């Protein structure tokens, strides 16, 4: 199509949710015009035309710009004025390459949408005709507006939002059954924490040790701190579900500290063995409630299928569902809170797996909605960001920023080893007292408050969170880099090359995303399959997890099968892209990958383990 042609062309391309032929609308004066010829074939199939959007309040919004790193406008499709979008402007500049971030963010968002379909709004990159010399190029990206979205900064996740009575009762019952075993394990730990003074030590040593003990009592990874925490519990012999959470946290921190000493002292080896045994008992108490979590998840799946709006019911109303032939009664409050905790686990794991450092307090809601992914896949996307000196100093990716460790996975989301710029448990200086006051807008609202940190840390040992953490990690680990490569090809041109800002080498955008995902998948899998708690999850819940994940894959395949059929009918140049995507997540291939994962987990279970109960 000639760039000098003056007739009006309005093309409404396919939506992300529906791919019917009637969605393609175009008005031209030329006969036999093919809608797919508007853009050169180098542009990926999910790219859309800016001329299909209307920005009704652009002048007012630009004049009164909200505090944001982006220039954003409310928009809607000309073919559907009732469906609102958020349009992020990336002003075209022929002297830089930063506008390609629109396509890169579209690819990253598609990764999130694939992994967390209920958490993430769809987003597409938009292009416009720049001039006869340039032709079409990227001018921004638009995502669907989430109805009634409230940022966590304005409506934060609170302790009462994560209380699930049905799970708490299950933990209390398991504590009752394992109380003697747990007390014995904790007493064993306490014995290993005793420290005898060296022979011949005098008053100086006593004074030195008293000062040292005072300091150690204020550090949460020392033997004295742990001993002071254990004594009241051992004296009272009274253990609650809240104690289980705190005990695991204290023991894991102590275990990590002892390991960091790299000491050959036999006393540390004895202590580490005792701590490991106590951790196993505590993890068994938590994992025993996984069956209750699975029941809640099955009920949640049924409610989703029936499209039942829980907000229309009172918290104490009861829901009755038949699960495995038995009637189960659960409160609306428990189901609301389960859905919150579940979606928080899915969203945060996706931020973690996709190396997204921009998960701040305004980019998420307490209900688990997450958005804004132009700082995800950061080792690649950082190349296309207009960054300040502060960004170069604090946000430029390095080898340690996204390190994967067993400690972080076990304590997730309370991570310590990886260093995400924004993170829900990362402590900042913003006091809670400033929330809601008139001066609060002067403070960086993106950071999380201390109350936010505390609530999210409480999720680390929450059975519903742990369950969905491992289920989402399982979904991630059964994939390979080809799936993400094929998703990216729908949004980023395979011919897009750039010069790396660091090593000055020419690289291909799709290739670099593929390499990054291959490494991330390997890094995550190599740690997770060796973790005892994950081994228990797969051994006891693997079959249900596979069913849930396969159901999500099937929904995704069905949508893209419709897209493929349409491209075949219109004979576009993009048919093979959809074929390759569908091949990479073919049902038979997924079944084989699940089998491989189960075998890999089984091979890594220590000899003393009670076994692996899920057989294929």
Verbal overview:
A hairpin with a 2-residue loop joins strand 7 and strand 8. The strands form 3 sheets. Strands 1-5-6-4-3-2 form a 6-stranded mixed β-sheet. It has a two-stranded antiparallel sheet with strand order 7-8. It has a two-stranded antiparallel sheet with strand order 9-10. It is globular and about 80 Å long. With 616 residues, the protein is an alpha+beta fold. It folds into 2 domains: 21-144, no CATH class; 150-478, no CATH class. It is built from 19 helices and 10 strands. It has helices at residues 58-63, 101-115, 165-192, 203-216, 223-236, 241-261, 266-287, 290-305, 332-353, 378-381, 389-394, 406-411, 450-457, 463-477, 481-489, 509-528, 532-570, 575-584, 587-603; strands at residues 48-49, 53-54, 71-77, 80-89, 123-131, 135-144, 318-323, 326-331, 497-499, 506-508. Residues 1-35, 203-218, 436-443 and 607-612 have low confidence and may be disordered. The N and C termini lie far apart (56 Å).
Q: State the end-to-end CA separation.
A: 56 Å
Largest sheet descriptor: 6 strands, mixed
Helicity, as a percent range:
40-55%
Q: Strand tally, please?
A: 10
State which percent range the strand residues make up: 5-15%
Poorly predicted tracts of residues? 1-35, 203-218, 436-443, 607-612
- What is the molecular shape? globular
Q: What integer is the average pLDDT?
A: 85
Order of helices and strands: EEHEEHEEHHHHHHEEHHHHHHHEEHHHH
Strand order of the largest sheet: 1-5-6-4-3-2
Query: Which structural class do the helices and strands define?
Result: alpha+beta
Alpha plus pi helix count:
19
The domain tally reads 2
Rg over alpha carbons: 27 Å
């Amino acid at each position: 199509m000639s760039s000098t042609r003056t007739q009006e062309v309005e093309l409404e391309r396919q939506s992300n949710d529906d791919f019917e032929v009637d969605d393609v609308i175009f008005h031209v004066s030329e006969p036999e015009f093919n809608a797919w010829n508007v853009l050169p074939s180098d542009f990926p199939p999910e790219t859309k035309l800016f001329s299909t959007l209307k920005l009704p309040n652009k002048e007012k919004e630009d004049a009164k710009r909200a505090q944001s790193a982006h220039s954003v406008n409310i928009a809607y499709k000309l073919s559907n004025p009732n469906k609102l979008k958020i349009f992020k402007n990336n002003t075209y500049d022929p002297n830089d390459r930063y506008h390609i971030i629109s396509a890169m963010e579209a690819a990253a968002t598609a990764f999130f949408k694939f992994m967390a379909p209920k958490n993430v709004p769809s987003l597409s990159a938009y292009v416009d005709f720049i001039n006869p010399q340039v032709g079409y190029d990227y001018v921004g990206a638009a995502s669907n507006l989430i109805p009634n979205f409230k940022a966590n900064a304005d409506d934060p996740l609170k302790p009462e939002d994560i209380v699930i009575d049905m799970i708490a009762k299950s933990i209390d019952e398991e504590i009752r059954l394992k109380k003697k075993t747990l007390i014995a394990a904790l007493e064993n730990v306490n014995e290993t924490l005793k420290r005898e003074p060296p022979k011949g030590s005098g008053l100086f040593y006593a004074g030195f040790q008293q000062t040292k003990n005072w300091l150690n009592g204020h550090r949460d990874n020392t033997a004295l701190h742990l001993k002071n925490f254990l004594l009241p519990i051992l004296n009272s012999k009274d253990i609650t579900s809240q104690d289980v959470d705190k005990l695991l946290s204290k023991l894991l921190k102590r275990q990590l500290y002892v390991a960091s000493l790299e000491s050959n002292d036999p006393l540390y080896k004895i202590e580490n063995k005792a701590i490991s045994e106590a951790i196993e008992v505590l993890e068994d108490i938590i994992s025993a409630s996984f069956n209750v979590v699975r029941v809640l998840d099955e009920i949640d799946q049924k409610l989703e299928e029936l499209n039942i709006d829980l907000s229309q019911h009172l918290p104490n109303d009861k829901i009755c569902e038949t699960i495995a032939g038995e009637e189960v009664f659960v409160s609306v409050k428990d189901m609301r809170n389960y859905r919150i905790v579940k979606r928080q686990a899915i969203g945060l794991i996706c931020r973690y797996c996709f190396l997204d450092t921009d998960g701040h307090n305004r980019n998420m809601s307490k209900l688990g909605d997450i958005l804004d992914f132009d700082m995800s896949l950061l080792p690649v996307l950082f190349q296309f960001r207009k960054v300040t000196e502060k960004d170069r100093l604090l946000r430029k990716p390095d080898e340690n920023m996204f390190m994967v460790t067993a400690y972080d996975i076990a304590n997730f989301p309370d991570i310590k080893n990886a260093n995400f710029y924004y993170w829900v448990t990362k402590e900042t200086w913003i006091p809670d007292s400033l929330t809601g006051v008139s001066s609060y807008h002067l403070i960086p609202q993106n950071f999380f408050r201390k109350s936010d940190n505390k609530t999210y840390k409480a999720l680390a040992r929450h059975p519903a969170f742990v369950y969905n953490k491992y289920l989402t990690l399982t979904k991630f680990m059964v994939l390979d880099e080809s799936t993400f490569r094929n998703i990216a090809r729908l949004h980023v041109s395979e011919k897009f090359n750039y010069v790396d800002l660091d090593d000055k080498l020419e690289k291909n955008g799709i290739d670099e995303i593929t390499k990054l995902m291959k490494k991330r998948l390997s890094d995550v899998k190599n740690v997770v399959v060796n973790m005892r708690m994950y081994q228990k999850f797969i051994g006891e819940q693997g079959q249900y997890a596979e069913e849930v994940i396969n159901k999500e894959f099937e929904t995704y395949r069905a949508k893209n099968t419709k897209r493929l059929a349409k491209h075949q009918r219109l004979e576009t140049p993009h048919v093979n892209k959809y074929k390759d995507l569908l091949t990479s997540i073919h049902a038979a291939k997924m079944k084989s990958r699940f089998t491989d994962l189960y075998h890999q987990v089984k091979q890594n279970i220590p000899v003393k383990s009670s076994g692996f109960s899920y057989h294929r």
